[in-house]
Design goal:
The strands form 2 sheets. Strands 1-2-3-6-7 form a 5-stranded antiparallel β-sheet. The longest helix has 19 residues, at 149-167. The mean pLDDT is 97. It has 3 helices and 7 strands. It has helices at residues 26-41, 125-138, 149-167; strands at 46-48, 58-61, 70-80, 84-89, 99-104, 106-112, 118-124.
Length: 168
Amino acid sequence: MSVRPILRFPDPRLSMPTSKAVQFDAELAALAADLLDTMRAAPGIGITAPHIGVLQRLTVIKLDAQSGTKIYVNPQIIWSSAETTAHAEGSVSMPGISEDVIRPSQVRVRYQTLLGEPKEDQADGLLSICLQHEIDQLDGIFWLQRLSRLKRDRAIKRFAKQEKAADS
């Protein structure tokens, strides 16, 4: 297990759709462990394989100690509620920047475990938001694309200013 470098916005790999995982082996388990270590170091509550440059459908989410670590292989949203909610979102690839994103309040997700077992979960609250955010990333949709042009442009300018100040 190791902490891997996180791609920074606007790396084009952050906007590329991923391939399904087909090998459920020690290599996939090691990738999931690296994602967890990298997410903890970032810090963050969710991360996908594309964040570390691996274009595979794998995400790790850990909201808090009580809910534990959740690993989703090949996740897809199969249902979402008509009711929506706004929640501040950001990315480990764009640290320090967040904006409110409006998403469905609840989702049902089909995925596989690290052993390839098929599962389905329904989520609401923060887990629902995280699943939608991370599955978007796996589909090649960086979270900024869910913002209005004005909010997106402001967020990008704030990040550029922040990065420039860090380089000085």
